[in-house]
From TrEMBL:
Its main location: membrane. This is High affinity choline transporter 1-like. GO terms for molecular function: choline:sodium symporter activity. It is found in: Membrane. Keywords: Glycoprotein, Ion transport, Membrane, Neurotransmitter biosynthesis, Sodium, Sodium transport, Symport, Transmembrane, Transmembrane helix, Transport. The chain crosses the membrane at residues 6-25, 52-79, 85-105, 125-144, 164-185, 192-210, 247-265, 277-299, 334-362, 382-401, 407-430, 437-454, 488-507. The keyword Ion transport applies. One of its GO terms (biological process) is acetylcholine biosynthetic process. InterPro entries: Choline_transporter, Na/Glc_symporter_sf, Na/solute_symporter.
Length: 593
């Protein structure tokens, strides 16, 4: 197969369009920064000045979740004979993610005007412990970058016959450049273009696949074994624990991603943030349908009749690249080029979000709050840019270690779910007396140790702990079928609360001297109480000012009404005088006659 020149030209046009949009958005962000003279430049870069447009916010939140891993991972799961549609979980758990985020997590984040999701950790636990908690979040973002690039590299190498290395490096450079230029403004506005391209490109390609003569009707193969096992798949009772575990990881793990809160905090109000979440959940469901159909068609195809030949993609170990393979061999060449545009758009939309997410946490929570408190806006801009480049290079380097999309996807979300999610719940919804630094440390270490001892077949980590139901899966790999990750998450959550309660009693009752209180529980309680009181006073002050403004407006309106009444009365008197004068003149004229 020779290099696909028309496809390269189309991809070059696509990259120029995205880059041009990013440059335009960066110019817009600079105009906003000049207008908002009282605003923090870093806040404008990371949160778009907390005034992002509603429609743009919906598009950028949806595009962040609908990435390369999303569309390729769903197709891979549906096509895989050992999994099927019932294991293609991504779209449905995301609905739960957005609804929980909109109803519960967005409010405390917005009310306290945080910049990143790690801000409450620093306020409550201090810099040392919060720095340790940042690392899992940063690693998850780097893995996010890696998984999106893997999906694009595999697609380009199949359809364009472009070397894997070149595909990844070009995409990485373009995403890094426009993220550097305009921060969240560039990311958000390019996401609008990318999401439109994803939707149009995939729906253009699906009809061509479904009408391919080498593929059977997917309704006939949904529950009947033809070329392989039915693509709907099956869920047996003994596998229910693993299914529940995967569902919960995808649903709750996303709530511990900085990229989610970056969109929530950039909204102009809490109501707008909620609308953004609810609308994005519907978009995720719709955008998952084409990938399901691609996987179903691939499972219903007699690959021996195509130019791909035998054995099947699954037998060759290429199930992770089933979407680009289906585009290449089941659609005309010009259609497959359109399809690769969808994959490229999905990859770029997720990668830029991960880049900015990691850069925001490092620059705001580590550099600004710990290393250099007095850093100027200009200095912080350079720190953000450096962080973007470092995260991009680290994620790009990881893509050469493994070429499975699901590996990076699941490992990244796994860390967020088992380690970060219980920490975030405690720091947002429990007071210092119930959740403190000691509990957070115990929960962090316990979750990390238990997760390592539980093993992970995706990275060839052998398990030490064998939970109930531990056995070989359909592919012969020893797997934990018990919901062990949810168990670890709940264990971590309970350990945080128990350890926090015990240490609070010890130090508050004077059972141990305060000089042994490393995390200074009493001082932390006083600090949080003072901050809460200050915020309440500020909110009361704002309410009083708002009421005064309303009263002043009402008085002004009343004064205006009184003035109008007086004017109307004066006008009425004037009209009466004019009327009598006219009547007097008329009577005088009659008498004269």
């Amino acid at each position: 197969m020779s290099l696909n020149v028309p496809g390269l030209i189309v991809m070059a046009i696509f990259y120029l369009l995205i880059l041009g949009t990013g440059i335009w958005a960066s110019m817009r962000s600079k105009k906003v920064e000049r207008k908002c003279t009282g605003s923090d430049g870093m806040e404008i870069t990371l949160l778009a000045g907390r005034n992002i447009n509603l429609l743009v916010g919906i598009f950028t939140l949806t595009a962040t979740w609908v990435g390369g891993g999303f569309i390729l991972g769903i197709a891979e799961a549906v096509y895989n004979p050992t999994l099927g549609l019932v294991w293609a979980l991504m779209p449905v758990p995301y609905v739960l993610t957005f609804f929980l985020g909109g109803f519960f997590f967005a409010k405390p984040m917005r009310e306290n005007k945080y910049v990143t999701m790690m801000d409450p950790f620093q306020i409550k636990y201090g810099n040392v412990l919060s720095s340790l908690l940042i690392f899992p979040a940063l690693i998850a973002d780097v893995l996010w970058v890696a998984r999106t690039l893997v999906s694009l590299g595999g697609t380009m190498s199949v359809i364009l016959d472009l070397p894997y290395v070149y595909s990844i490096c070009i995409s990485s450079v373009v995403a890094i450049i426009y993220t550097l230029l305009g921060g969240l403004y560039s990311v958000a506005y390019t996401d609008v273009i990318q999401l439109i391209l994803i939707f149009l490109s995939l729906w253009i390609c699906v009809p061509f696949m479904m009408t391919n003569p080498n593929s059977m009707d997917i309704t006939l193969t949904a529950f009947n074994e033809t070329f392989q096992a039915p693509w709907v798949g099956k869920l047996e009772l003994r596998d229910a624990g693993k299914w529940i575990d995967d569902f919960m990881v995808l649903a709750l793990g996303g709530l511990a991603y900085q990229a989610f809160y970056q969109r929530i905090l950039s909204a102009s109000s809490y109501t707008q943030a909620q609308v953004t979440c609810f609308a994005s959940s519907a978009f995720c469901l719709v955008l998952g349908v084409p990938s399901v159909l691609v996987g179903a068609v691939a499972a219903s195809t007699d690959w021996n009749l195509t130019s791909y030949g035998s054995p099947t993609p699954y037998e060759r170990g290429q199930a992770g690249s089933i979407l680009p393979i289906a585009l290449q061999y089941l659609t005309p060449s010009y259609v497959s080029i359109i399809g690769i545009g969808a994959v490229a758009a999905a990859v770029m939309s997720s990668m830029d979000s991960a880049l900015l997410s990691s850069a925001s946490m490092f620059s705001s929570n580590i550099y600004k709050n710990i290393i250099r408190n007095q850093a100027s806006d200009r200095e912080m801009q350079w720190v953000i840019r450096t962080s973007v480049v470092v995260c991009g290079l680290a994620g790009t380097a990881l893509t050469f270690l493994d070429n499975s999309v699901l590996v990076f996807w699941l490992v990244g979300v796994d860390m967020s779910y088992t380690i970060m999610f219980p920490q975030l719940v405690c720091v947002l919804f429990f007071k210092v007396g119930v959740s403190n630094g000691y509990g957070a440390s115990v929960g962090y270490l316990l979750a990390l140790v238990l997760r390592i001892l539980s093993g992970e077949p995706l990275i060839n980590l052998p398990p030490v702990i064998h939970f109930p139901g531990f056995r070989k899966d359909a592919e012969g790999v020893m797997t934990q079928f018990f919901p062990f990750r949810t168990t670890i998450m709940l264990t971590s959550l309970c350990s945080i609360l128990v350890a926090s309660g015990v240490t609070s009693v010890i130090f508050n009752k004077g059972l141990l001297s305060e000089r042994w209180d490393v995390f200074q529980i009493k001082r932390s309680q006083a600090k949080v109480t003072a901050l809460t009181r200050l915020k309440k006073e500020e909110s009361k002050k704002d309410c009083v000012e708002a009421k005064e403004a309303v009263v002043n407006k009402q008085l002004l309106d009343t004064s205006c009404i009184c003035l109008l009444v007086q004017l109307s009365k004066s006008r009425q008197k004037f009209m009466d005088i004019c009327f009598f004068l006219c009547l007097f003149r008329f009577c005088g004229s009659v008498l004269t006659l």
